[in-house]
C-alpha cells in the first residue's frame, strides 16, 4: 500500500568482542571485525535496491560502520541518533558471562533467573532501554510517513523494542533472537506497527 511506512531495523555486524563472548554495552566502542565488515557489505548489497530515504545509526562505531556500508548505495549519509546506543551494562562491561558468573555468582543468578525487569548492575533495565529507544524511533515514523528508512542499532536495543511489538514486556526481549546484521522489517500502516520480517539472515548465506 502506498501509505505504508517501512522501518528496516538492523543489528550491527560482528566485532572481536562478539566473537570472544565479551559483553559490549554502550561503554565499549569496538569497530567491526573483518567478518563483521563482510556481513555489513553483504547487508548493504541486499538492501541496495530498496528505496531507503534515510539511514540512522547508534553513535557507537560498530553501528556507524555498518550503517555507512548500508547508506553507500543510496546517498551515503548516516544520521546519528544518540538514543539508539546499546544498553548500559554497568560494571559488567568488557567481561564474559563466565567471568561474571565466577566473580559475582549471586548477581549473575539474579539477573539470569529473575523473570522480571532486573537491570544490569549499575546499568540500565530493559524497560529503560525501551523507553529511550521508542522515544527516538516514534518521530522517525512520522518524518518518513509513506517511505522506507533504515536504523542500525544493537542486540538489546532491538530486542527490547521488538518484544513490545510482539505484545510482550520489554524484558522479554531476552527471548527475541537478533543475529549480527540480522534484518527486521516493521510496517506502519494507519498508525499501527507490525513486524513483517524478524531477524532475517538469508542475505548472509555464504559470508
Automatic annotation (TrEMBL):
Q: Identify which top EC class this enzyme belongs to.
A: hydrolase
User: Is Chaperone given among the entry's keywords?
Assistant: no
- Residues that bind substrate: 11-18, 62
Keywords from UniProt, A to Z, are: Hydrolase
Q: Which CDD domains match?
A: HP_PGM_like
Superkingdom field: Bacteria
Q: Which residues form a coiled coil?
A: none
Matches recorded under PANTHER family: BROAD-SPECIFICITY PHOSPHATASE YOR283W-RELATED, HISTIDINE PHOSPHATASE FAMILY PROTEIN-RELATED
Q: What is this protein called?
A: Phosphoserine phosphatase 1
Q: What organism is this sequence from? A: Adhaeretor mobilis
- Per the record, the gene is pspA_2
Amino acid at each position: 500500500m502506498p501509505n505504508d511506512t517501512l522501518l528496516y531495523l538492523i543489528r550491527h555486524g560482528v566485532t572481536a568482542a562478539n566473537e570472544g563472548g565479551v559483553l559490549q554495552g554502550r561503554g565499549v566502542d569496538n569497530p567491526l571485525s573483518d567478518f563483521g565488515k563482510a556481513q555489513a557489505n553483504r547487508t548493504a548489497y541486499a538492501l541496495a535496491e530498496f528505496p531507503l530515504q534515510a539511514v540512522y545509526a547508534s553513535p557507537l562505531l560498530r553501528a556507524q560502520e555498518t550503517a555507512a556500508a548500508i547508506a553507500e548505495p543510496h546517498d551515503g549519509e548516516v544520521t546519528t541518533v544518540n538514543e539508539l546506543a546499546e544498553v548500559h551494562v554497568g560494571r559488567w562491561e568488557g567481561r564474559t558471562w563466565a567471568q561474571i558468573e565466577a566473580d559475582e555468582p549471586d548477581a549473575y543468578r539474579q539477573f539470569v533467573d529473575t523473570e522480571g525487569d532486573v537491570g544490569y548492575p549499575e546499568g540500565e533495565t530493559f524497560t529503560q532501554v525501551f523507553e529511550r529507544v521508542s522515544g527516538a524511533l516514534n518521530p522517525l515514523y512520522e518524518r518518513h510517513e509513506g517511505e522506507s528508512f533504515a536504523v542500525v542499532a544493537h542486540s538489546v536495543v532491538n530486542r527490547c523494542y521488538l518484544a513490545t511489538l510482539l505484545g510482550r514486556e520489554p524484558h522479554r526481549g531476552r527471548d527475541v533472537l537478533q543475529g549480527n546484521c540480522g534484518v527486521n522489517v516493521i510496517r506502519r500502516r494507519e498508525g499501527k506497527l507490525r513486524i513483517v520480517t524478524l531477524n532475517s539472515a538469508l542475505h548472509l548465506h555464504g559470508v
